């Protein structure tokens, strides 16, 4: 391909990627409620956004669930990975295959399966069931990112520490954890973003009493376009963009983190 | 020591049994029974739900889901492969910027990205306003399959580009030089070396696009307007509105099995491709 052709092609692709986002941003400042028409500049939708109790609550639940499920699944997943790493080949393979199920299964199947479980146990759907579900689909990713680090680690390092007088818990804190820390962090990051972004599994397990942002956006969008969603999208997009730029600048390894 | 550490995995094993194995098992049981789901005693073994899946109406839904997912995967591959190649061959100074620009949109909520297309494509959307302004006839693609395809391609294109890019960027440049030194022109270098070596990336790209596309109900719900219901819409309906969990479970099991089969096929292709790639390289 010639250079000009490459540039034109990439230009079209990037236009395709960003056009909808630009449209959302522009129309978040649009006075006219209709989506195709420009009625002048306004910040009304942002004001409405901050005044809406519904959106504030959804944001609160989204963040709360993301933080809690990240903390719990990172701890449980890391501990489980330590155990799995010391298992025989057969049980390890069986456990990892089951662990992979939520990763490979379509979200909708995981969602309805969990909903079926909770309903069969007569547990009312709500905050707790949604939190449990988020932990269920997050732990596998933590394990999948911690386990390779454990395998890379020199097996004798912990033994050496204990031969030199370290208690097992001291060896764990001072030797093993620092060694596998990058894996733990990338697992936690994954758990957090998956939880923030999840719609399908939350949709089936949240019931009607709790709403996160994704569920709220879905129900609002189904009823048609609301300019407040545009304002919300703009804020979320700008937040993500700023976060990405900071990570990129700070580590200089943005590519690795993004992947 | 090893034995003591092993114990650490046991709580998670119990957790997996309760929250991964049992739920899927329940779905399997519901798919094979009929009766009131809230009353265990009333459940009876029955193939009813699977017979219902085999009705032409529902077979069409499954066929449509696979067809739309297949078409969107092919479009993603055709559009995405050149993108991955261009980024992989770009000047290292700009490479990570190009990649980041490609990835930023997927960090935005999936529903918002789909919603964004609603404002562009809807009957009173921007495109139609623009066409009306020019005095041209309206474009009626939303709600409809074209809009659903567009939404799928838009949402999943990065999942095709990323794995292909990763594989392409790892190809040893000396291999390509060797090919041209040995008289291979650019077409030969591409078809005999780059393409076979990139098969693993293509395979995981195809899987990563096809899986979410075939099981989606968000894109078809928002952009398709229920014109062509997909298997995901049907499952959502059965569990949330019609309350026919037996039928919904049967659909979920069928979706799972079909996906497992397609993944097995893809990993077979991956293996063959790697062997051939090994020969060519």
Give structural notes.
- Chain A is an all-alpha fold and 259 residues long.
- Chain A has a domain at 55-224: MetI-like fold (Orthogonal Bundle).
- Chain A contains twelve helices and no strands.
- The longest helix of chain A has 33 residues, at 53-85.
- Residues 253-259 of chain A have low confidence and may be disordered.
- Chain B is mainly alpha-helical.
- Chain B has a single domain, classed as MetI-like fold (Orthogonal Bundle).
- Chain B has helices at 2-6, 10-31, 48-53, 56-89, 92-103, 110-121, 126-133, 145-170, 173-181, 186-215, 218-223, 231-240, 245-280, and strands spanning 33-34, 44-45.
- Chain B has a two-stranded antiparallel ribbon.
- Chain B is globular and about 75 Å long.
- The two termini of chain B are 46 Å apart.
- The chains are: A mainly alpha (259), B mainly alpha (281).
CATH-scheme architecture of chain B: Orthogonal Bundle
Relative strand content of chain B: under 5%
User: How many helices of chain B does DSSP assign?
Assistant: 13
- Greatest interface (CB-CB under 8 A), with counts per chain: A-B, 80 and 86 residues
From the spread of the alpha carbons, the general shape of chain B counts as globular
Q: Could you estimate the helical fraction of the residues of chain A in percent?
A: over 70%
CATH architecture of the domain at 55-224 in chain A: Orthogonal Bundle
